[in-house]
Amino acid sequence: MEGLIALVIGVLTASGVFLVLRAQTFPVVLGLTLLSYAVNLFLFVMGRLAIGVPPVITPNATAYADPLPQALVLTAIVISFGMTAFVIVLSLKARAELGNDHVDGRMEHKESQQ
Amino acid sequence: MVLASGDLIRAHPLYLPTLLLILLGVFTKSAQFPFHFWLPHAMAAPTPVSAYLHSATMVKAGVFLLARLFPALSGTPEWFWIVSLIGMTTLLIGAYIALYKHDLKGLLAYSTISHLGLITLLFGLSTPLGAVAGVFHIINHAIFKASLFMAAGIIDHECGTRDMRKINGLWKYMPHTATLAMVASASMAGVPLFNGFLSKEMFFAESVQVASHHLAGWLLPALVTLGGAFAVAYSIRFIHDVFFNGEPIDLPKTPHEPPRWMKVPVEILVVLCLIVGIAPALSIAPLLEIAARGTLQSTLPEYHLALWHGMNPAVVMSLLAMVGGSLIYLLRRPLFALHDRGLGRLDARALYHGILHGLYALSRSVTQHFDIGSLQRQIFLLLLLALLVIASPWILHEAELTGARSTMELNGFAWVVGTTLILSSLATVLLHRQRFIVFLPLGAVGLMVALIFVGFSAPDLALTQLSVEIVTIVLLLLALYFLPQSSPPEENKARLWRDGILAVFSGAAATLLAWSVLSRPYETISGFFLENSIPGGGGSNVVNVILVDFRGYDTLGEITVLALAALGISALLQGLQLNAPDRDAQQRLWDHDAHPTIMATLSRILLPFALLVAVFILLRGHNQPGGGFIAGLIAVVAIILQYLANGSYWMHQRFKYEVSPLLAWGLGIATLTGVTSAMFRHPFLTSTFSHLHIPGIGEIELASAMAFDLGVFLVVLGSILIILVQLGFLHRANPILGRFEARSWKD
């Protein structure tokens, strides 16, 4: 199980890294989204894997999952959304100001539409 | 405390670096070689200011630190060699250059450097008596140098120049000032009866004393005497050049005695020179004793302040210095010529600026090399570096990859979720150029991540991830409308390979890192939270209690960040004009029926229920999975659904409220919860709770953390609504789409 999770984190990271390195703004935003999934998962599993033991105190429970990474990741998920929103709006602004969606603001290609 | 633990400090392994850093500060501040060049150039101020800064306070701060830390740091060979060598070099260089300065203040400035070198050398000798002499010289130098600076100021004021090649024979014009300046110069030269003589005598005696313990014992006294001779020479030059030596040469003004009050400060200082010089035991001794005791922090050595100690080596050295100094001054013409051709050309400041210039050029070229204005390249370098950092432990230390912890068996659920996630992630990469279609695999990735949270006992995370996933997709869809619908193919195949290889390595590194952590046992601090969640925070959902109670301060920061992001986005979107396409990627016109009736009707029915769920989730969040973040997200989804199904035009007519005050309300409530607890003399954000029993509903927990969670709820709701609705209004502002909207509603 741990191996599969590690693999999942790795694939998400690799996909994110590849997309972040693209030249247009939109794939970069996609890449950031995937990277934040990877990071959130990575943080989450730092509390190790546990099945069926949610960290909600009940009288009969014998074990609980580690609540601390969960609390960290919960806010991280919301903050990642804030970041994604900011970056995508920044890319809209860049397109309006520079007339293209290249990350460096350069016209390297003809716009594929319009 | 620090001063008393000298032995401990000196034995510490970090003693040498500490010493070097402190000495660096001391030497630069007190203008020691090779940092001496700044002082003469800092003499731009009016002379009284120079007198104050450069004789008494500012440059003395360095040697004062040296004196202060003397009991803590001195006594080691490192201290001895570094401090005394630098002091000696500064003493000689300063005295040598001072002789050749034609500017009155320049001469005094280099003389100051030389005297600071002398004081440094005294502390460097590491003997108690040396330290006493050092402190004594700090006082004496301040007295005579300040009076000299002010005398130089008077001369400058009266003559309009400070060039000693022009100022000659002032004795005739200002005998009073001349007398004062001569007394002070004599003190600077170390002539008996003046205060400078006393500390210089102690200095000479101490150098002989220390030298007898070291190799080449004659060298230290010889060099010290040479420095003394140069001091005599430049003092004679100051007196002879300025006040005698023929007639003034085309001065801008005709000099005469200055006003009475210009001379008073000099007079006071010169009288002090004499009093201290003639009757030290009656005047300066008590002050010196206090200063020396403070410096040494232990019993004072035997010393005796007096004019005449009998015939001893120090007297011989003084005599030698006087005779030598006079000889040097007599030989000044050939010496000046020699200096102008040789050493005079060396300018430490030019050297310094040269080095500085070179460093600037180097940093510029490094920057230009790495920062070529390309984000792609920057990110590549950043990721490459991160990869190296992650990989270094395995490469450098050959760390074990797998730890001792036993791993879990795979189950079918995990297989399905894992493989779906991996395939969707890869599909996102493969399809990323078709920007609309890529939402399918991207959404799948998000949902699978939520399922992982479900599977591994994190219901709060699963709920958050699910609702964030929805708003993320809505957000990206809204934005994509204004961006090209597809990416052009990458023309640079080498870049594709390069990025691909980096991506694969990064992924491999992340996998290995995650694996090596997961396969190791660990200690968690979460026991504290699990135990104290109910007694301390009054809630059984530990994740929520951590968020709103234990780590409430962090959460307050996080919702502030979210609110700021929303405001930033709002500002970015202000007045943004974007051309939107009226056709989709396949060149089809947009559907006129933008808001299908079934969807619109159903969504309207859903709204109250969805909001009810949000409130429910908010209320139960303290004890069951839920809370402000999740409730806020659910409420957002419910409201955004109305925008999607009915159009922003329709919504705008019914939902006329400004959303931005929600941010203020939310942050205000959350902060107020903290302030309230502070008013009851508890730490900021301490929570309190009690139970309330409502018939028919059951036990309800009233915790102050609930109010905090309400703040979180409002901020999340407000921020995300601002972001999405403003982005949506861009569409409405668009002429083509706005027309659709209006028409579809009228129809």
Keywords summarizing the entry:
heterodimer; A: 114 residues; 3 helices; 63% helix; B: mainly alpha; two-stranded antiparallel sheet; 71% helix
Task: Walk me through this protein's architecture.
The complex is a heterodimer of chains A (114) and B (747). With 114 residues, chain A is mainly alpha-helical. In chain A, helix 2 (25-45) packs antiparallel against helix 3. Chain A has helices spanning 2-20, 25-45, 67-98. The model of chain A is unreliable at 109-114 (pLDDT under 50). Chain A is built from 3 helices and no strands. Chain A has a single domain, classed as Helix Hairpins. Chain B is mostly helical. Chain B has 2 domains: 3-330, no CATH class; 542-747, no CATH class. Helix content of chain B is 71%, strand content 2%. In chain B, helix 5 (60-68) runs parallel beside helix 8 and helix 9 runs antiparallel to helix 11. The relative contact order of chain B is 0.06. Classes of the chains: A mainly alpha (114), B mainly alpha (747).
Strand tally of chain B is: 2
> How much helicity do the residues of chain A have?
55-70%
**Sheet bearing the most strands of chain A, described?**
none
Q: Output the CATH topology of chain A.
A: Helix Hairpins
What would CATH call the architecture of chain A? Orthogonal Bundle
- Low-confidence parts of chain B, pLDDT < 50 over ≥5 residues? none
Order of SSEs of chain A: HHH
Q: How many domains would you count in the coordinates of chain A?
A: 1
Integer-rounded radius of gyration of chain B? 41 Å
The outline of chain B comes out as elongated
Number of helices of chain B: 32
First CA to last CA of chain A: what distance? 49 Å
Alpha-beta classification of chain A = mainly alpha
Number of strands of chain A: 0
Helix content of chain B: over 70%
The fraction of residues assigned to DSSP E strands of chain A is under 5%
CA gyration radius of chain A, whole angstroms: 19 Å
